[in-house]
Specification:
CATH class of the largest domain: Alpha Beta
Oligomer: single chain
Number of domains: 5
CATH architecture of the largest domain: 3-Layer(aba) Sandwich
Radius of gyration: 28 Å
CATH superfamily of the largest domain: P-loop containing nucleotide triphosphate hydrolases
Distance between the termini: 54 Å
Strand content: 15-25%
Shape: globular
Largest sheet: 7 strands, parallel
CATH topology of the largest domain: Rossmann fold
Number of strands: 21
Helix content: 40-55%
Structural class: alpha/beta
Strand order of the largest sheet: 3-4-2-5-6-1-7
Length: 642
């Protein structure tokens, strides 16, 4: 296969002359018609792997992603490069979706981004066979696996596409984090025609992973940020703490701001831009901060609290050092964190009867009768809902998440849908209207000068920008739009910011709402396993941090030499081989029985002074314990209690 035409596409649209590691291999695989699973770390340039081959081939590329904000961002970027692209998601009206599908069939569009819950709708499935699809790209592919940390039942419907399109169309599944069981699950659930996994190493040699066990995290954070240079991210678990820590840093003379999903979209964009351009040095954020971050020179990512999984931690810490220069990923860990996680576990899994209470209240709140609602989309205000029924916010959110996991609903965070306009008359009829209605002529010309494509699709508009251009008030602009809509000249959909609830099944009676105890326990057990892994990462200071992370994803690697564990071991003046051999012998001997220090040293087949160094290190790190009789024994891991 000649790769040069693909490089020409890359250069023409993105200005790069060569592909990043693995991009070329994935493109070759897809070009040969092979179903492909690409494992690429955060910031590895996943979108290039489907955008470049799709542009070279006739037809349209179907891109499935659950992140509406990311979908919109990519569509806007492609259109800015004059690559015609569309999106279909649950925040759109039926008319908008209908027009978008027609444009995909009859227009020269190259990309259709679609959210997974839209795939199984009748309007999409009945017309999909008429699409000329050249590639199906599944982003965030780990969402298809119940073993994954972000399972979404709507992903299980993706394989239905195979029966509606040519069997020659390859599937490309992409993810930044997948364990070996998840990899196998992706391949099975997407019905791959053979196992074909391409991966680049997840190893980040420039990142120094550190765990700091500190009780006074605020003091540590302030001292650290005064010492280190460059910009970074501090991740926290709650919106309230997010603001408190940012204010603490500002009071200490550190340029900082806070970011979470509860802020208005415009303010979030402003805060992210300020941080991205360097105006703000440190952003203190919840995990809502992540999508669209392309800042390469992030010198540190600090986690104030432990995330729920290795996958989450790896993705978030991986936002450091994308310029391949030295960077730090620091996890702050205190004695109270474990009890906080235990409390978090209880709240994450409300009792089954409480989940059913919230389901029934939700149906009543949205006025969905029994047996109805399937595929219906509703604006949803969490604050109004919990206020009306006096539900705790966290318990409600987790109940909705569980209902989503069970496949009854889809629940999106707040999305910002701008106002949209579509001309529904021909240009000739519009001209006749302008001649007959002179008072509207200037405003119609303003619309046509400001935006293109309004005759073929809904186009996002900004009333404030139109008001500024025309020297009219925003209210006057709004009234013009409403009036033109009433005359059936345009369709005008005013903008709104809202979360959405999509009913993927009709409303069921309480007794028919199946949340089996076995499934509930299984989901909880999987969550506990993931929590244990991240606790092990923080607790164990005898194994290289990088090796621990890579081992979780099924990748072998040598110790990094720059994490906190490696740095301490480096001070022992022992090679990795010597240290590991001595450690193994010590552990094996103590597995048989307790020994005093002198007897233990004598049983290890290495020079005494080296054995003593390793023994001291293990004692200092609480891996070996001495009882009241001065006998040594190996401390077994204290697994997270259920």
């Amino acid at each position: 296969m000649n790769i040069e035409p693909y490089k020409q596409i890359l250069t023409k649209y993105w200005g790069f002359t060569s592909f990043r590691p693995l991009q070329e291999e994935i493109i070759r695989s897809v070009a040969e018609g092979k179903d492909t699973l690409g494992l690429m770390p955060t910031g590895g340039g996943k979108s290039i792997t489907f955008q470049v081959p799709a542009l070279l081939n006739e037809g349209i590329c179907l891109v499935i992603t659950p992140l509406i904000a990311l979908m919109k961002d990519q569509v806007n970027r492609l259109n800015s490069l004059e690559i015609k692209s569309l999106a279909i998601h649950s925040g759109m009206s039926a008319e908008e979706i209908d027009i978008a599908i027609e444009n995909c069939i009859y227009g020269d569009y190259k990309f259709l981004y679609i959210s997974p819950e839209r795939i199984s709708t009748r309007i999409f499935q009945t017309r999909l066979p008429r699409f000329n699809i050249n590639l199906v790209a599944v982003d965030e592919a780990h969402c298809i696996s119940q073993w994954g940390y972000d399972f979404r039942p709507s992903y299980l419907k993706i394989a239905l596409i195979r029966d509606l399109i040519s069997d020659k169309v390859p599937f490309l599944a992409l993810t930044a984090s997948a364990t070996p069981p998840v990899i196998d699950d992706i391949i099975k659930k997407l019905e791959f025609r053979g196992k074909n996994v391409l991966r680049t190493s997840f190893e980040r040699k420039n990142i120094s992973y550190l765990v700091r066990q500190v009780e006074d995290k605020g003091t540590y954070l302030i001292k650290t940020l005064h010492k280190v240079k460059g910009s970074g991210i501090v991740y926290v678990r709650s919106r309230k703490r997010c603001k408190e820590i940012a204010e603490l840093l500002v009071a200490s003379g550190i340029s900082a701001d806070f970011y979470h999903a509860g802020l208005p979209v415009e303010l979030r964009d402003k805060k992210q831009t300020s941080w991205s351009t360097g105006e703000t040095r440190v952003i203190v954020a919840t995990n809502a901060f992540g999508m669209g971050i392309d800042k390469a020179e992030v010198r540190f990512v600090i986690h104030w609290e432990m995330p729920d999984s290795i996958e989450e931690y790896f993705q978030e810490s991986g936002r450091a050092g994308r310029d391949n220069k030295p960077a730090f990923a620091v996890l702050l860990y205190s004695s109270s964190d474990k009890s906080r996680l235990e409390d978090s576990l209880r709240r994450k899994f409300p009792p089954v009867e409480k989940i059913k209470d919230i389901y029934e209240a939700l149906c009543n709140f949205l006025q969905v009768p029994q047996g109805a609602g399937k595929d219906n989309v509703f604006d949803f205000s969490m604050s109004d809902f919990v206020s009306k029924y006096r539900f705790p916010v966290i318990e409600t959110y987790n109940s909705l998440s569980f209902l989503q996991r069970e496949g009854y609903i889809e629940f999106t965070e707040e999305i910002n849908n701008p106002s949209r306009v579509h001309f529904i008359v021909s240009r000739d009829d519009l001209y006749k209207f302008q001649v007959a209605n002179e008072s509207f002529d200037s405003f119609i010309k303003l619309l046509l000068r400001s935006y293109t494509g309004m005759f073929s699709e809904f186009v996002a508009i900004n009333e404030d920008a139109l008001a500024k251009k025309s020297a009219l008030s925003r209210d006057t602009v709004y009234r013009f739009l409403v009036k033109l809509s009433s005359f059936n000249i345009i369709r005008y959909i005013p903008g709104k910011k809202t979360a959405l609830i999509i009913f993927t099944e009709e409303r069921l009676e309480r007794k028919a709402l199946m949340i089996s105890p076995e499934n509930y326990i299984q989901v909880k057990d999987k969550h506990v396993i993931r929590l244990n892994k991240i606790i092990d990462y923080a607790d164990y200071n005898t194994k290289c941090r990088s090796v621990t992370l890579l081992d979780y994803f099924g990748e072998e690697a040598d110790r990094c030499g720059i994490c906190d564990v490696c740095r301490e071991r480096n001070e022992l003046d022992l090679s990795k081989y010597e240290f590991d051999m001595i450690l193994t012998e010590i552990k094996d001997n103590l597995a048989e029985k307790k020994l005093d220090a002198q007897e233990l040293v004598s049983k290890v087949s290495h020079p005494e002074e080296k054995v003593i160094k390793v023994l001291r290190w293990l004692l200092d790190h609480n891996k070996i314990i001495m009882d009241d009789k001065h006998l040594l024994f190996w401390k077994e891991p204290d697994l997270f209690s259920r």
